[in-house]
Design goal:
The protein is α+β, with helices and mostly antiparallel strands and about 300 residues long. The protein is built from seven helices and 18 strands. The chain folds into two domains: about 40 residues, no CATH class; about 250 residues, 2,3-Dihydroxybiphenyl 1,2-Dioxygenase, domain 1, CATH 3.10.180. The two termini are about 20 Å apart.
């Protein structure tokens, strides 16, 4: 079945009739922006939760609630807590008894990314971080988005970002145009308002993984319906559903042929997706990362 949703664009309909499965074909027609504006991305957000295995639950909990999350599932006595915004769980923490630190040159989490509602909320979060003296690991303008980077007390990478309007995204030869430029922090701070925690619109925006082999990893995730949106000099690739800039990043920056993620290592526990047409279950990617496919509600 064609992956492109029927819309009023006759060209898009024609692509579906011809059986085109790739969103890239619609990009190449030059109609991508209109397609996006007219509801081509109306499906529910596909990423649900990310789970971390932690050494010290109290320290992690203090950090993440200070960051802006609220507790939505409290099983502290059993060594597990769910954090999120509103009633939505986004981040799951569980204690890993007898765990060990992640060794060098191994696959696993590069960072998980928290998508905020807009740049005003991002500016408010930045002001909050500065006031609370939360240590930042970096900040970048990626053209499609603006991002702030952090590292939690156990070394897990975090990105907090806000997208620019989709009409501003540029596609060239079927790939999204992204870059890593300095963030205009002052412009964001001028928009800052009081920050009382992440808003209910907050979601898990994307996952970024260290992998051992790009081709092998990409093939696995393409079986879940993700499509390539960018290839960074064969060092990193970005993939998405429905023409988003990326729901998944994979890179070989921990070393090509990096060792698999082992279950007794602190760090990434799983990430969860929900997507029409996918069989529910728990799967393992080629690098040992657990992918939970949840039933569509």
């Amino acid at each position: 079945m064609c992956a492109i949703r029927p819309v009023i664009l006759s060209a898009a309909k024609d692509l579906c009739v011809r059986g085109t499965r790739s969103f890239a074909a619609l990009r190449m027609t030059g109609l991508i922006s209109k397609y996006l504006r007219e509801g081509g991305l109306a499906q529910a957000w596909p990423l649900r939760r990310v789970g971390l295995k932690v050494r010290d639950l109290d320290t992690s909990l203090e950090y993440y609630t200070g960051l802006g999350f609220s507790i939505v599932r409290d099983q502290h006595a059993e060594g597990a807590v769910g954090l999120g915004s509103g009633s939505q769980e986004i981040l799951s923490l569980r204690v890993l008894p007898g765990g060990r630190p992640r060794p060098p040159r191994t696959a696993g989490l590069y960072h998980f990314a928290i998508l905020l509602s807009d740049e005003t909320e991002l500016g408010s979060f930045l002001q909050h971080s500065l006031e609370r003296r939360i240590q930042l690991a970096g900040a970048s303008d990626h053209l499609v988005s603006q991002a702030i980077y952090l590292s939690d007390p156990e070394g897990n990478g975090i990105e907090v970002y806000a997208d620019r309007q989709r009409e501003q995204w540029e596609w060239k030869r079927g790939q999204i145009n992204m870059a890593t430029l300095p963030l205009d922090a002052q412009a964001l701070l001028k928009q800052a308002r009081s920050f009382d925690g992440f808003s209910p619109q907050t979601r898990l925006g994307h996952m970024h993984l260290n992998v051992g082999d790009l081709d092998r990893s990409a093939a696995f995730y393409q079986e879940l319906g993700l499509e390539l949106t960018a290839d960074l000099y064969n060092q990193a690739r970005f993939l998405s559903w429905d023409g988003y800039h990326h729901h998944l990043g994979i890179n070989v920056w921990a070393g090509r042929n990096a060792s698999r993620l082992e279950p007794d290592v602190y760090g990434l526990d799983f990430f969860e997706i929900s997507r029409p047409g996918l069989k529910p279950g728990t799967f393992e990617d080629p690098d040992g990362v657990k992918v939970v496919v949840d039933a569509v509600e």
